[in-house]
Amino acid sequence: MENTTFGTRERALLLGLMTLGGTASNPELRAHVGDALDGEPRRRVNKSGLVMSEKLGRSYHHTLTEDGWAWCVTELEGSAPERGGSLGRTLYGVLRVIKGYLDASDLSLAEFVVKAREGGAAAPADLTKAIRDAYWHLAREPQD
């Protein structure tokens, strides 16, 4: 999938939507990214099948599709927009580091985002108790 057809605005909005867990309203995007997915950029990403948008009340609500998540994964290895400057080059360097981590950890981008948004997967304070609780939750009777 070729990612260079999108300009800086569309790239920022798609990656911003990804960092919000893949779903957000325009007011949420505006607060998080500083821009809303509207007008021609919305029509372009909808037509490309990367985002589904529906009007709820007075604003649009957007959800990344499977192809949208795949676009984001591909963008992790992409090149910064020409007009991105040093910040853009640095950001895309960080994205490549994240992609390397995901590959090494056998973790999907969606799983990574969900865990990061939840504050990571902290180890239980009492691992033995957590294992016993899980056992009793799954076992139908003793010695299962």
General shape: globular
Instruction: Kindly name the structural category.
Output: mainly alpha
- Overall pLDDT score: 87
Low-confidence stretches are none
CA gyration radius, whole angstroms: 19 Å
- Strand-residue proportion: 5-15%
Oligomer: single chain
Biggest pleated sheet:
3 strands, antiparallel
Number of helices: 7
State the separation between the terminal residues, measured CA to CA. 48 Å
Total DSSP E strands: 3
Q: From N to C, what is the helix and strand string?
A: HEHHEEHHHH
Helix-residue proportion: 55-70%
Strand order of the largest sheet: 1-3-2
Task: Please give a structural write-up.
- The chain is mainly alpha-helical.
- Helices cover 56% and strands 10% of the residues.
- The protein has seven helices and three strands.
- Strands 1-3-2 form a three-stranded antiparallel sheet.
- A hairpin with a 2-residue loop joins strand 2 and strand 3.
- It is globular.
- The N and C termini lie far apart (48 Å).
- The model has no long low-confidence stretch (mean pLDDT 87).
